[in-house]
Design goal:
- By secondary structure, the protein is of the alpha+beta class.
- The chain has one domain: Penicillin V Acylase, Chain A (4-Layer Sandwich).
- Helix content is about 15%, strand content about 35%.
- It has 5 helices and 13 strands.
- It has a 7-stranded antiparallel beta sheet with strand order 3-4-5-6-7-8-9, with helices on one face. Strands 10-1-2-11-12-13 form a 6-stranded antiparallel beta sheet, with helices on one face.
- Strand 11 and strand 12 form a beta hairpin.
């Protein structure tokens, strides 16, 4: 996952709204979102190489997502897959707070990451490149490949666009949210971060929706949780070809109260 924008207790009818783009190499095998046979309460995609996932929600009111922290100088080969962190939280019977208490002493084993965890008690952000977990209050949040709310152009643009889409009591059509997530406009060079990948790649990675020969946005996901615990999960999966995108929609009610 390389871009998340989250509205938490921001909208009067939807206490949780999540928009996400997953960016990945095209040759990394993965499966689109579905309820898992081995964990029927979990709705998530799956990384078929390492077995983890980048984003998911459960019928029991847990939600998790992860982004990589971009710092090529610190990347260690052989480190465990960061997608396992999302998988384990969704599958295991631990609260977000208990899972973080378990994870923090072990977080240095992994390459840099940002983790969003939510359950019926609250919503948290944690990065092994920051001081410790943060309990999030009501508001709009953006996350890419640096720390929470780092004002990279894509993060700032996506947060502003989401704020406009949530300005009325009724949500606009899903396509309006997908238009936000498919914005291919690159940032101006003067606004680009310097993360160590070189100017050409900083330009490629600067839009909300990324496209290149070998790497790009593989899927866009919308999650809406209303005040009564009804979940609508919409995923659009893209192909690096002329084939049309595939849209899947799941709707269900949480077994417990909505997150937070």
């Amino acid at each position: 996952m390389c871009l998340l924008v989250i509205a938490y207790k921001h909208h009067p009818k939807y206490p949780l709204v999540v928009l996400a783009n997953r960016d990945e190499y095209y040759d990394r095998p993965s499966a689109p979102a579905r309820f898992w046979d081995e964990a029927p309460s979990v709705l998530a995609g799956k990384d078929l190489r390492a077995g983890g996932t980048w984003l998911g929600i459960t019928t029991r009111g847990k939600m998790a997502a992860i982004t990589n922290y971009r710092d090529p100088k610190s990347v260690r080969t052989g480190a465990p897959s960061r997608g396992i962190l999302v998988r384990d939280f969704l599958v295991e019977d631990k609260s977000a707070r208990d899972y973080l208490d378990y994870l923090v002493p072990r977080a240095s084993q992994y390459n840099g990451f940002n983790l969003i965890l939510g359950d019926t008690e609250g919503l948290y952000w944690y990065s092994n490149k920051a001081d410790g977990p943060k309990l999030l209050g009501p508001g709009l949040y953006g996350l890419s490949n640096h720390l929470l709310d780092t004002p990279w152009p894509k993060v700032t643009k996506a947060k502003r666009a989401l704020s406009r889409l949530l300005a009325s009591d009724e949500l606009p059509p899903d396509e309006a949210f997908f238009q936000l997530l498919t914005d291919r406009t690159p940032a101006e060079d003067s606004l680009l971060p310097n993360t160590g990948v070189g100017l050409e790649w900083e330009r490629i990675l600067s839009p909300i929706f990324i496209s290149s020969v070998i790497y790009g946005t593989r899927s866009s996901t919308l999650i809406f949780v209303d005040a009564k615990g009804k979940v609508r999960f919409v995923e659009k999966t893209y192909n690096n070809s002329e084939a049309p995108s595939i849209v899947q929609t799941y709707q269900f009610h949480l077994d417990h109260a909505p997150p937070g």
